[in-house]
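Quick check before the chapter quiz. The format below is the same one you will see on the exam, so make sure you can read both the input and the output lines.
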Amino acid sequence: MKSNYFASCPRGLEALLVKELEALNIESPNQVDGGVEFSCSMEQMYRVNITSRVATRVMMRIKKGTYETEDELYQAALEINWFDYFDLANSIKVSTTGVKCPLKSLDFMTLRIKDAVCDSFRKEMNKRPDVDIRNPDIRIHLYLEKNEYFIYLDTSGDPLYQRGFRKSSVEAPIKENLAAGIILLSGWEPGQAMLDPMCGSGTFLIEASMMALNQMPGLRRNFGFENWKNLDSKLLKQIKSAYESDKKPLTFSRIYGSDKDLRAIRVAKRNLVEAGLEDAVQLVCKKITEITPPFNEGVMITNPPYGIRIGEDEELAEAYPLWASCLKNKFSGWRTYFLTSDFRLPKLMRLSPSKKTPLYNGALDCRLFEIKMVAGSNRKK
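Here is the expected output.
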């Protein structure tokens, strides 16, 4: 029996999410802004949560309809048999998102849906579930458009970019699913050399290592659906066990990371150890201008500092030409990818990008610049 789902992802990665779903034999996924709509079986839903590298959340739609007032939304939620999905002992959290929503207060609407869930249990069992806004067992999402509503149960729990092992970070880390999406957009394949010369806490390195070793990103964590009444724990265990068996032996995977900040290198090492991937990666503490390419060809992927994160625009304007000189002199034959919100980067590096992909790093409007390094000048005349 199939249910309807919506999987969210960072904007700009929707097409990659469609490919992931199709690889799981999910039919006719519908790409929309910020995610993908699809129908699938419970087993496929388990697999999406465990295997998706780019999804943020997977939510099961349990009701939709039209509305005009807050009371209509309250009644719609009251009519749902919530106790079919989870027990009184489970804590809940309700959140509301609106796009062109005419209602005065989304916070008030969140409270009304919470009341509807509690009133539903109180009517049936004379008791109500507890609310836990920090670490709930059950997450309920209300999505409002101009005159349509959608009520979802969150199958994922914590967002899927939380892989279950990163303990440390440096300033402004990139989310894991965005990092994985950028690696996929670059066309890098396991076996090729991959370098992040400003690796920070090591997110690109960890995501690439998991790809190289065929390690599914959700194997080390729990999910929201594990608190549902209809959990098939035997099936879930079988699925995870099969994916564990498919992992490749841990070995050096031609993945390299460096950073001028020794603290960042220590944090990256700690995260790689926590993920069990330290032997797949080689780390050094060097500036980008001091690096020697490990191979004649490869893929460089990095999220460089951009004003907001470490300093003033003037410092970066001085740094970009130095980076460019290093790339032109040493990295001929490499494809390089820079994720930045500083759109001056290619111009100040005096290098012409072959591709510009709009992406969002959190709320920051960014570009992923692809710059292919060739001998001599790569600038347009």
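If your answer matched, good. The first helix runs from residue 14 to 23.
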